[in-house]
Design goal:
binds protoporphyrin IX containing FE; about 5% strand; 3-stranded antiparallel sheet; alpha+beta; 4-stranded mixed sheet; binds 2-acetamido-2-deoxy-beta-D-glucopyranose; Cytochrome p450; about 50% helix
Length: about 525
């Protein structure tokens, strides 16, 4: 029968096609595999699709997806994010190879879209490529902003803002839950902005209402933009299609922000000119200099280097890098304490024993509160707010884990995976601050590095630990804390750059009777 013959013929063609595609597929797999071997490149998940590479595999949150891929293909992976080659490492030894042995090679940053527009064309400390400009910015900030002396000078601001938060909480009816995420974030914005420029824009007693409104809008827009993942960084072709609008928003945001910061600089400049260099308070004490004042006085001696643009860039980096990170760490810590009341009570006993009830905890107490420090370490182990650090980039070819890594490869160090790996940490998802007791920090090296490591490591670590320690310690010392209901606090991670909590923390608190008088 004709149809029968036709059928066999079609079947035959289909079979041949199938056969050929199977052969082709096998050929592809083998060549891919052997070419990789031959070129000694790190393993990649299969397949690498044309144009998009591995973008189709990358679900949010990225640190969890990369950890899953690594569980199958090993701790050193080469991925293709569209047009960008990416090295993902997720073991302590591989991290050490990248951030210690090849520290200089990986001290570069990729020139991503947001860095180009918001990082003053990649000239700010966080986005500058490895080189003279970046080294200089690190040196200046180490001396003039992050030094123990400078941080000490501004300790009063931190204590003052924490006290205002405690007083605000005391006025809250104990049966009514408070939005702790918002309060902690506003605490950090006020602290950073006062240290930078002497201004506070959140809460009560805000002097310049209109300015504060503008500032809050800038902060909100920054979050809206950077919260959206930026595909254009990996698929340049898209920049000519839909993503143009994103670039427009980035440009508008930058203009808005620069205008705001410039006004602050001008205010300080006239203030500085009026007061002169040797400004002193009436009682003869040296005036406490804000960070902008410090940079402006450097500008007077070296105007070519300390341009207004450079100062604006520094103000914005400090605000962007310091606020959300510290606030989110405090929010995670408090959430963990609410779910583990026995830890909260142990921390409270430590503070009661070492500080007592007659005064509020202060920054000098922190070195005498090892359990509080263990809680902070354990929080940053479970919920590092930079789960993949900030992307690095190799400036030369180098070897990691025995594999060849080409130059110009973007590096993601999966700190989250390393710090939650059952091979390194017993019961890794369990909140157990005691595991840090008696743990020698130096020996632990690359198993725990919430602030990164090496040249590009976080310069704000000292400040962050003071701020988180003081904030969290004060909340524990002054209040009894309770979950909003019987239900445990939901600990899932939301999308976003600094690993935010998916659901903002709300909680109930009442002043501890022994502390109430100190808060009025
Ligand atoms: C809990 C709080 C904080 C955490 C967990 C944290 C973590 C980090 C991490 C993981 C990096 C990237 C390191 C790398 O790429 O290898 C970084 C970079 C940076 N951090 Fe922090 N940070 C915190 C607070 C702060 C604060 C308070 C400031 C300053 C006000 C700050 C300023 C910076 C800067 C300027 C960089 C860029 C350094 C560079 O590229 O050379 N950070 N931080
Ligand atoms: C990772 O793998 C686990 C178990 O294999 C799975 O439950 C989880 O959804 C995966 N997560 C991501 C982000 O792929
Ligand atoms: C950014 O820097 C590059 C190279 O240094 C330069 O070609 C470009 O014009 C700069 N762009 C802006 C907006 O300043
Ligand atoms: C903290 O309090 C103690 C005891 O009152 C005091 O000796 C110390 O100077 C205070 N430190 C700071 C930084 O205020
Ligand atoms: C917390 O971690 C740091 C960094 O690894 C370490 O130096 C320090 O000793 C730890 N502190 C405690 C109390 O475990």
């Amino acid at each position: 029968m004709a149809t029968g013959a036709d059928g066999t013929l079609r079947g035959g063609i289909a079979q041949t096609l199938l056969c050929y595609s199977a052969l082709f597929f096998a050929f592809w797999v083998f060549t891919d595999y052997f070419l990789r071997k031959l070129r000694r490149l790190p393993p990649s998940p299969f397949p690498t699709l044309p144009v998009i590479g591995h973008l189709h595999l990358l679900k949010k949150p990225l640190h969890r997806t990369l950890a899953n891929i690594s569980a199958r293909h090993g701790p050193v992976l080469l991925l293709q994010f569209g047009s960008r080659r990416v090295l993902s490492v997720s073991s302590p030894s591989a991290a050490e190879e990248c951030l210690a042995k090849n520290d200089i090679v990986f001290a570069n940053r990729p020139q991503l879209l947001a860095a180009k527009h918001l990082g003053n064309n990649c000239t700010t400390i966080s986005w500058a490529p490895y080189g003279d400009n970046w080294r200089n910015l690190r040196r200046i900030s180490a001396l003039e902003i992050f030094s123990a002396h400078r941080l000490q000078t501004l300790a009063g601001i931190r204590a003052d803002e924490v006290l205002l938060l405690l007083q605000r909480l005391r006025r809250n009816p104990p049966d009514q839950a408070v939005d702790m995420k918002a309060l902690l974030f506003e605490l950090m914005l006020n602290v950073m902005m006062r240290m930078i420029a002497g201004k506070r824009y959140y809460g009560e007693n805000v002097a310049e209402v209109e300015k504060a409104r503008r500032f809050r809008e800038i902060v909100a827009e920054t979050f809206r933009i950077t919260g959206a993942s930026n595909v254009a960084d990996f698929l340049p072709a898209l920049r000519w299609v839909g993503v143009r609008s994103l670039e427009k928003r980035l440009v508008a945001l930058k203009a808005n922000r620069d205008g705001f910061m410039q006004e602050l600089i001008e205010e300080h400049r006239t203030g500085l000119a009026a007061a002169g260099e040797s400004a002193s308070e009436p009682d003869g004490k040296k005036k406490k200099k804000t960070m902008v004042e410090v940079l402006l006085s450097l500008q007077q001696s070296e105007p070519i280097y300390y341009t207004d643009e450079m100062i604006r860039g520094m103000m914005i980096v400090l605000l962007a890098a310091g606020t959300d990170t510290s606030a989110a760490t405090m929010e995670w810590a408090l959430s963990l304490l609410l779910n583990n009341p026995h830890v909260l009570h142990k921390a409270q006993s430590e503070i009661d024993a070492r500080v007592g009830h007659d005064r509020l905890i202060n920054e000098s107490d922190l070195s005498d509160l090892p359990y509080l420090r263990c809680i902070i370490n354990e929080t940053m182990r479970l919920f590092p707010v930079g789960p993949l650090l900030v992307p690095h980039e190799s400036s030369e070819e180098c070897v990691v884990g025995g594999y060849r890594v080409p130059r110009g490869t973007m590096l993601l160090v999966n700190v989250w995976a390393i710090q939650n790996d059952p091979k390194t940490w017993a019961e890794p998802r369990k909140f157990m601050p005691e595991r840090f007791e008696g743990l020698d920090g130096s020996r632990d090296g690359f198993k725990f590095m919430p602030f990164g490591s090496g040249r590009r490591g976080c310069p704000g670590e000292g400040l962050a630990l003071k701020m988180v320690g003081l904030g969290l310690g004060s909340l524990i010392q002054c209040f009894e804390w309770e979950r909003e209901s019987e239900e445990m606090v939901d600990m899932s991670e939301g999308p976003g750059l600094t690993m935010p909590k998916a659901r903002p923390l709300t909680a109930k608190c009442r002043p501890r009777p022994a502390m109430a008088s100190l808060l009025s």
